[in-house]
Amino acid sequence: MAKTNSINNAAYDQLNKDADRILQLIKVQMDNLTLPQCPLYEEVLDTQMFGLQKEVDFAANLGLIDIEMGKEIMLRLEKELSKLHEAFTNV
Fold it and tell me: Which family does it belong to?
């Protein structure tokens, strides 16, 4: 049972790391490359978010994480991205 919890924790940690990586990628892109209205920005964001959602779905389907935990990861990232987007568009 301890091994199962360890695997579940590892899956949750990895999903959080991936969410943080997306947030960092968008921060760098906004700081150095482009504005939020740019189609490239939208494409990168959509692709990354879609990929993370698929990871969350996969982990939930395997029983590695609870679906609610997955929703929390996605919601946290969406909130952070919204704050970041708002900060850059209100400059």
Answer: Belongs to the UPF0358 family.
